[in-house]
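Here we describe the complex-level prediction in full. Unlike the single-chain runs in Section 2.1, the two entities below were treated as one system.
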Amino acid sequence: MSYTAAHDDHHGPEKGLLRWVKTTNHKDIGTLYLWFAFTMLLIGGAFAMGIRAELLQPGLQLMDPQFFNQLTTMHGLIMVFGAIMPAFVGLGNWLIPMMIGAPDMALPRMNNWSFWILPFAGGILLSTFFMDGGAPAFGWTFYAPLSTTFAPDSTDFFIFAIHLLGFSSIMGAINIIATVLNMRAPEMRMMDMPLFVWTWLITSFLLIGAMPVLAGAVTMMLTDRNFGTAFFDATGGGDPVMFQHIFWFFGHPEVYIMILPAFGVVSHIIPTFARKPLFGYSSMVYATASIAFLSYIVWAHHMFLTGMPVAGELYFMYATMLIAVPTGVKVFNWVATMWKGSLTFETPMLWAISFVFLFTIGGFSGLMLGIAPADIQYHDTYFVVAHFHYVLVTGALWGIIAATFYWLPKWCGKMYNEKLAKVHFWWAMISVNVLFFPQHFLGLAGMPRRIPDYSLQFADFNFISSIGGFSFGLSFVLLTYIVVDCIRNGKPADARPWYSAKGLEWTLSSPAPYHSFNTPPSRATILEESQHS
Amino acid sequence: MKRLLTLTSALVALASSKAAMAEYGLNMTQGITEVSKDIYDLHMMVFWVCVVIGIVVFGAMFYAIIAHRKSKGHKAAHFHESTTVEFIWTGIPILILIAMAIPASKTLIDIEVLDKADMTIKVTGHQWKWQYDYPEEGIGFISNLSQSSKDVMDDREKGSAAKREALDASGDTYLLSVDNHLVIPVDTTVRFLITSNDVIHSWWVPAFAVKQDANPGFINDAWARPTEIGTYRGQCAELCGKEHGFMPIVIDVVSKADYAVWVAEQQGAAAAAAVAATRQWSEDDLMAQGETLYNTNCAGCHMTDGTGGYGPAIKGSDIANDDAADHLNIVINGKNGMPSFKMLGDSDLAAVITYERRAFGNTGSVVQPSDVTSAR
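The structure predicted for the assembly as a whole is:
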C-alpha cells in the first residue's frame, strides 16, 4: 500500500515565511514545535554549561551566587516547559495523524494558536534575565515564600509565562484527545492503535488534569504577591507547605507527561530492529494507564521532610513503591521483545537500547528515593539531581532523539549520515554518564543540590562531572550538523526506510504528503501494520 | 557487555569496601545514631536488590544483544504475548516490594515516634544563618559561616597560588565551619524543634540522619541520640536564596561533664550580656564590636567597605546619616530583600548600627543598647 504525494498537488503549503505563521497543517506545526524545542534545548543547555563551569572547581570563580541560582532555575524551567514538553507535542503533531490514518489534527486552528503562544511565553521567561533584580532565582519548583514575599519583581512575568505555557499545553492535549478519538480511521479500534498514540492519549489526560492545578498555584502566588492574600503566608493564616502540595499535585503527573510518550517511541523502535512484534502489547497499554493513574496519588513523596504525619508518609511511600510494578512490566516487555529477535543496531535502535538501560538506572535510584526513611539522607542532594537527570535526559530526551532519527527519513524524505550518527551516539552516551553518574556519589557523600560552591571533599567528582558536561554539551553541535546535513544533502529515503518497520505512517510516501490520509486505510492494512500481529 | 561489566565491577568495588567508601566519599555515612545506622542498612539493602534486578534484566538484554543479532544469522522468533509471563513479572516485583516495605515502615515509625526526650533545642533558620536556643537552659546564640571560610572564598576569587594553598589548608571544613558550634551531650536524646524566620530552610546533619524542613510559621520536630563524641557537620538542604550554600551546621557532641561546663559558661556570658545591654557604651567599644558583627552579618550584601553590592550602599546613604529611628527600624524589621536582624541582642544591634552610622565616612549619631530596647 502506498499513497503518493499526487493528491495534494492542488493544495500545498503557502509560499514564504507566512506559511509558518498561518499554517494549520499538522506537519508544519510539528516542525515548528520541534525546532522551537531544539532552540530551547540549546539555550537551557547553555545555562547548564554555566552551572557546570562554576562547579568545575571549589571556590566562586565565574558568577555570584544569586546569578548561579538564576541559572539553575531557568535551566530547569526552560528544559521542562521549553524543550521536553514542546518536543513531544511536536512529535505527536507530526506522527499521530499519520499513525491513525487521519488527514490532519482535529482542531487545526487551535493547533496553530497553541504553538504560537510558545515563543512569546519563552521570550517573556527569558527576558526576566534583563530585568531589575534579575531572573527568578528560587528553583524550578518555586517554593513559597521564597517565590512570593522574597522574590524579585520579575516573578510576575514568570507567572504570566507559566500561564501561557499552560494554555498551550492544555490546548495541545485537547487537540490530541479529539484527534485520537474522532479522526481515527473508521476501521481502527482503540486496541489497534500503536503505542505512541496510546501513550500520547494517556499523557493528554495527565496534561488536562495537571496543568490547571499549576495555573492555580501560580495564580495564588500572583495574588499573594500583589493583592494582599496570604495563601502561602503563615502570618496571614496561610501555609507555605500547602504550596508544595499544590505544586507537586501538578509536578508528579508532569514527570510522567515527560516520559510516557518516550515509552511509546521506544515501543516502536525496538520491535522494528528486533524484527519481532512488540511483546505484550495490551499489557503495555494497561501498564501505561496504571502509571498515569498512580502518578496522581504519589505527589507527597517529594515532601517527606516537610513535617507530614507518619501515616501520610507510610501511605505515600507504599504508593510510590507501587509505581515500580507497571514500570518494571514495561522494561521486561522491551527486553522480551529483543529476546530471540534478529537484532540490528541502526542509530534509532542504539538510542532505544540506551534508553532502556539508562532509564532503568534512573528507575532504580527512584525506587531508593521512594523509601521514606532513606529519603531523609537523599532528599535535596545530588543523588536526586543524578536520579532525575537519568530519567529526564537519558529517558525523555533520549526518547526524543531516538524518535528524531527513526522518523527523520519520513519527515524530510532523506536519510541521515549513519556513520556520523553512530559517532554522535557513542559520544553522547559516554559523556552523559561521565556527567551524571558521579553525581550519585556526590549526593550520598552529602553534597546538597543548588549550591554554587562546595567543600573540598566534593571537588574530584564535581570536576569529572563538569568535564563530562562540557563534552555532552559539545555533542549537540554534531547532532545539529547531522540533522541539517540530512535535510539539505541526505540521500532520498524509501517510503519504508526500515524495511522491518510496521505502522500506517510507513505506507505513506517519504517525505509524507502534506495531508496525510485522504482516504482512510482499510481494515486489512490496519491489521497488517498493527503492533500486535 | 563491556559497559555492563565495567559498571558491575564499579558497583561491586563501591559496595564491598566500607573503608574505601568513607575515604573517597562515595557512599552514605553510617552516622552515629541508631537511626542513622538503620537508614544506612536500609539504603544498602535496597541498593543490593537493585543490583541483583539490574544483573538479571540487563544480563538478559545484553545476552540478546550478543546472541540474537542478525549479523550472526539469528532468525527472529514470533512469540509476542504470554499472560502467564506477564503475571509472573507483575507478581515477583510486588513480593520484592513488600519485602522492602516491611523494614522501611519499621524504621520510619521509629524515626517519627518519640515518647520522651532528655532535652530540647530550638533551631531557627534565617537567611542565611542558624539560630539555636536551649529553652530549658536559657541559652541562645546565632551560628554563622566562619570567617576563615569567607576569607578563603574571597581569596579564591583573586586566584593566586598562595590563596590556593589557603583553600587546600582549609581541608574538609571549607564552607563547613561556623563561628558558634551547637553543643550537645553524648548518649542523650535531643529533641529539635525546627522553624524558620523567613523562607523555608532545611536542617540537615548527615551523621544524625536528621533532615527536617524549617517552615516559617510552623514548628517541625526531629530527634537524635548521638552515641559518639566528635564534631559533625551539615548544611542547609533547601534552597533559601542567595547564600543558601553558605549556612552550614557544626555540632560538637561532648561528654556530659563537658556539656555541663559549657552550659555554665554560656549562662555566665548571657548574664554578662544582659548587664551590658543596660549600660551606656563608649563609641569606641561600639565601633570595635560593630565591625566584627558587620563583617559577619552585613558585608555579604553591602560589602566590607559599605559601597553596596547585592544590597544598596551604606556609605553616604540617607538612612545611615539621618535620624536613627529609620535605621533601627530597617535593621530590626527588615525590608524587601533585607532580612530582619531582630534575633541579635540589644548591645550587638547597637554596635552594628553605630558602626554603619560612623564608619565609611558616615556622620550619623551613635546608637546605644537602650535605644534598641525602646525601638523594638
